[in-house]
Amino acid sequence: MRGRHAAADLRSNGFVALAAGMILPLVVIGAVYGGYQMMSSTGCSGTVRLSVAASPEIAPAIKDAAARWIKTEPRVDNECVAVDVVAVGASEVAAAIAGEHGVTINTLGQADGKTQVPHVWIPDSSIWLQRMRAAREDLVPQNAPSLARSPIVLAVPEPTAKSLGWLENKLTWKQVLQQIVGDTRITPGIVDPNRDAVGISTMVAMASVRDQFGPEGDALTVGAIKALTTGKSEQQSGLIARFPRDADPRTLSTAVTLAPLSEQALHAYNATGPAVPLVAVYPDPAPIALDYPFTAMPRLSPNRAAAAEQFRSVLSGAEFRNLLSTHQLRANDGTVGTGMTLGPSAASSSAVTPVPDPKVINAALQMWIEITQPSRMLAVVDVSSAMKQTVPSAGGLSKEQIAVQAALGGLDMFPESWAVGLWSFSTGHQQLVPIGPLNAQRDQLRGALGGLKPNPKGGSGLYDTVFAAYQTVQQGWDASRGNSVVVITGGRNNNPGGMSLETLVSSLKKAENKDQPVQIIIIGVGSEVNQGEMQKIVDATGGAVFVAQDPSKIGDIFMKALALDDGR
């Protein structure tokens, strides 16, 4: 029989006790917790109690397997085995383990003070174990065999998948990023990678594009991550709630239409019978799948370690595979049990990408942090006579009109956390909107951009304006943000009484503060822009030059330029 100590142990862990065929309700701490306790009690000399914390989607299968195992009356040295199962997110357990040992997991944050450190931890991914090892090698064991598997897919509403032609096609990650950056039918979302293994897996896959394709890959990756940021959620439930509830075009245009999810989460969503089901797109190469490692924590007592190993041995085979399938999970070898039906693209999920070194994981997380850092940007738009020229390939629109359209499109993509200001310039410059919080002045910026018109006789004080803009951003430099000047110009400097190129470059080098970087991004519109001269300007401080020889293509150029505006 359990004494007062055992009862107190159950209360402190927020478990629901199941003993002698009776369910004893207890207060559960936190809505995410659901606990179960099973024990065998026939002729035992004592009890070995095993607490198990499992990710919510696999916890029911673990609980069912434990209940069946307990019926066999397992023992360790004639002590009965009791198993307590609690469903809790991996990030909470990781933070609790780190907090118990006085270490910090990079980008994770502090423990919530409620989650207990279990004897056995079954997170959704071995990525968590790698993050723990990066903080301290002995926080988790080296051997943690996987119990199940759920590939990472791109979840796309069925109408969107049909319009994109994605129902059967295999897609490379480069193709996916190109679509995210350039296709208005896609509104992406993601769960914060700092606290979600699916998000981390996605970042690792996207980083491979950045590494493989050089500057093009860099622009695609940064642009896609910035787009994902606008649809970021802190929890999976928040992300799923943003998928469309009906197939009306207006609903599809405002809902999330692409997000990385586990295959399990997608199947669980579709099992609810939504009006708009999700299609699983399996990108190539496959992201790191969720693998649910059985993690017996270090420094367990011998009897508890033996009980953990006995329990691990029953979490395999056909019976457990069928338990997993009832919760939309594959067995650890990728096979499925009775009752789980996979979509037509699921065959491509057989490829397995190994969990990488902790350094690779941390680098991917750092990429996310750097790119999603809020920006503080001063946009400077040319209104000299060069911008009045019409562009036949753009239906006779002027350079100015094309530039404004591109800028308005970019403005709509900027997250609320940004700070943005706007200047115009001809021979001299004019502040139209001071640098300030975008959430308070988005409409003001939109109106100012829409009112820009070229001066038919205006010269171009480009060099003086660039230096003044640089000084303005530098004076208000913000350590919590990327600080930048973005210049859109359609011609060369044409101001005899102003700075020369040599004077500008020299002045920028003298003004530069390595500890407070400000980068300059120049977007040229048309063949009149001298790219070599512009490159000398950005080389002085860091930045990039993009020139649209055909002004009608400035939209694509503009988005690539903004993709690099991450303050690095």
From TrEMBL:
UniProt-listed Pfam families: SBP_bac_11, VWA
Transmembrane region(s): 12-36
PROSITE patterns recorded: VWFA
Protein name per the record: Substrate-binding domain-containing protein
Location of the VWFA domain: 376-562
Keyword Membrane among record annotations: yes
UniProt keyword annotation of Membrane present: yes
Alphabetical UniProt keywords: Membrane, Transmembrane, Transmembrane helix
SMART domains per the UniProt record, alphabetical: VWA
Domain of life from the UniProt record: Bacteria
SUPFAM superfamilies in alphabetical order: Periplasmic binding protein-like II, vWA-like
